[in-house]
């Protein structure tokens, strides 16, 4: 899958914004959003939040997990754990990238958050890589991928599934 | 993402055709009349039993099976004991491209001639050992482009797919100016410690 497609999936995540305008309920295929009342917080899909933000019609509220302290804890847990820990959001990387990219003025200490998230990502990446290596070397035929987000799973595609298929081919060809 | 074309070879698979071109030594078990011109070292009309020749894999495969085999096949030299030992010792250091362009494809056929199943084990072992290298290569191919030259066709295809996916991901990570990146200090000092997962997973 293309990273952009994964991003598209992640944009369905809900997020709290504070609108600066009034509007009736908006009817969308996936559900209704609104009504919007200026300065009353409301949950909207991420893509809509970004869109409104670009038109400067809202302030985005930082998700709870996107605080320095919370992220530090996650990072420490991730470092200590030998398996993957549960991430606060199914699409943490996408949310972080979009929010920090388009709404960095709404998020205090955005630069530090950026660095910590990158650290978490790197730790998890190196875990993925070493566990994939262990899986292939020890001739494992299955693996549990608890708490991996789609974007992370996507980083070992297509190389891992294709490699496993090729191993299967070698195994299955007649002797 | 499209699957590799030689995924499961069919009659029209170019890779399969090219792979089965490889010369395979074999010995004739019976007299074959009128086929003397297969053997360039003689002018006789018939091929006597006991003649040793090198024929393409696709031909040997057909002639060595069936109720009455015409030839007794031998392993191509890259799958013989001496070469297998090299691969067992350190598969990563080997230039597979020089061994054979289609090392795994051809090996899947050649292993039929090996009753003990050693070739089968070698193929699996080689692929598994070299996979880590392949994965690292796909992630940072800039570091050493010459390593790329040492992959066989199947590995090269995996590398290409992996490399393309990685390039897209990197592009996604830096686009829109919202770069999520490690602190400059970490990059400058190369201070990031590598997690030693091999120890943890044991």
TrEMBL record, chain A:
Pfam families: PSF2_N, Sld5. CDD domains: GINS_A_psf2, GINS_B_Psf2. GO terms for biological process: DNA replication; double-strand break repair via break-induced replication. Keywords: DNA replication, Nucleus. Residues 2-61 form the DNA replication complex GINS protein PSF2 N-terminal domain. It is found in: Nucleus. SUPFAM superfamilies: GINS helical bundle-like, PriA/YqbF domain. One of its GO terms (cellular component) is GINS complex. Residues 65-163 form the GINS subunit domain. The keyword Signal does not apply. Belongs to the GINS2/PSF2 family. Component of the GINS complex. This is DNA replication complex GINS protein PSF2. It comes from Aromia moschata.
UniProtKB/TrEMBL annotation, chain B:
Component of the GINS complex. Belongs to the GINS3/PSF3 family. Keywords: DNA replication, Nucleus. InterPro entries: GINS_A (IPR021151), GINS_bundle-like_dom_sf (IPR036224), GINS_Psf3 (IPR010492), GINS_Psf3_sf (IPR038437), PSF3_N (IPR055221). It comes from Aromia moschata. This is DNA replication complex GINS protein PSF3. It is found in: Nucleus. The keyword Nucleus applies. GO terms for biological process: mitotic DNA replication initiation. Required for correct functioning of the GINS complex, a complex that plays an essential role in the initiation of DNA replication, and progression of DNA replication forks. GINS complex is a core component of CDC45-MCM-GINS (CMG) helicase, the molecular machine that unwinds template DNA during replication, and around which the replisome is built. The GINS complex plays an essential role in the initiation of DNA replication. One of its GO terms (cellular component) is GINS complex. Residues 12-59 form the DNA replication complex GINS protein PSF3 N-terminal domain.
């Amino acid at each position: 899958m293309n990273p952009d497609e994964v991003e598209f999936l992640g944009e369905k995540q809900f997020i709290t914004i504070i609108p600066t305008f009034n509007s009736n309920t908006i009817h969308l295929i996936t559900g209704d959003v609104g009504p919007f009342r200026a300065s009353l917080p409301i949950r909207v899909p991420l893509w809509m939040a970004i869109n409104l933000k670009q038109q400067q019609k809202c302030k985005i509220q930082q998700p709870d997990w996107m605080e320095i302290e919370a992220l530090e804890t996650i990072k420490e847990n991730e470092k200590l754990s030998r398996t993957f820990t549960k991430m606060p959001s199914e699409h943490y990387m996408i949310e972080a990238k979009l929010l920090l990219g388009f709404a960095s003025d709404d998020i205090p200490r955005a630069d530090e958050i950026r660095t910590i998230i990158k650290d978490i990502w790197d730790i998890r990446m190196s875990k993925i890589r070493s566990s994939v290596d262990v899986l292939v070397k020890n001739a494992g035929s299955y693996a549990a991928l608890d708490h991996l987000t789609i974007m992370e799973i996507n980083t070992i595609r297509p190389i891992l599934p294709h490699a496993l298929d090729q191993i299967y081919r070698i195994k299955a060809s007649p002797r | 993402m499209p699957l590799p074309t030689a995924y499961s070879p069919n009659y029209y698979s170019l890779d399969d055709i090219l792979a089965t071109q490889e010369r395979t030594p074999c010995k004739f078990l019976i007299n074959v009349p009128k086929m003397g011109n297969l053997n360039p070292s003689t002018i006789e009309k018939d091929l006597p039993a006991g003649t040793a020749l090198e024929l393409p894999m696709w031909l040997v495969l057909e002639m060595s099976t069936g109720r009455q085999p015409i030839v007794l096949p031998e392993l191509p030299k890259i799958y013989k004991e001496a070469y297998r030992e090299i691969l067992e010792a350190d598969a990563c250091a080997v230039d597979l491209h020089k061994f054979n362009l289609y090392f795994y494809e051809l090996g899947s056929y050649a292993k039929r001639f090996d009753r003990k199943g050693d070739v089968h084990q070698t193929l699996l072992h080689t692929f598994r050992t070299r996979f880590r290298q392949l994965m690292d290569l796909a992630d940072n191919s800039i570091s050493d482009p010459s390593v790329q030259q040492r992959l066989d066709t199947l590995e090269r295809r995996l590398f290409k797919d992996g490399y393309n996916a990685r390039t897209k991901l990197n592009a996604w990570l830096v686009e829109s100016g919202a770069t999520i990146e490690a602190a400059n200090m970490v990059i400058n000092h190369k201070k990031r410690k590598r997690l030693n997962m091999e120890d943890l997973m044991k």
